[in-house]
Model the fold of this input.
Amino acid sequence: MAKMLYALTFLDDAETIYSPRVRRHLESVLSMIEAFPESGALITSEFLKSRYGGEIRRCGIAPFYLVYTYERETGTVRVRGLVPQRSTL
Done:
């Protein structure tokens, strides 16, 4: 199991989710990432790399992408935020 660290921006983003269905999906995806931290798709967006740093991964939670980084050496997942899927990745 990976160590999960949550950025304040992610926690603020998560507070804006009012749909019970989307909240359940978010919880499910976070559990999956904790067990399988490399399951998210690697993304190459220079914008997100400059904003979040490191090797960025994403998982879809419509209408958002959950954006995170995984540090294999320490076994740490840093959950960075929720990015609207309509934005350019």
Notes: The CA atoms of residues 42 and 57 lie 4 Å apart. The radius of gyration is 12 Å.
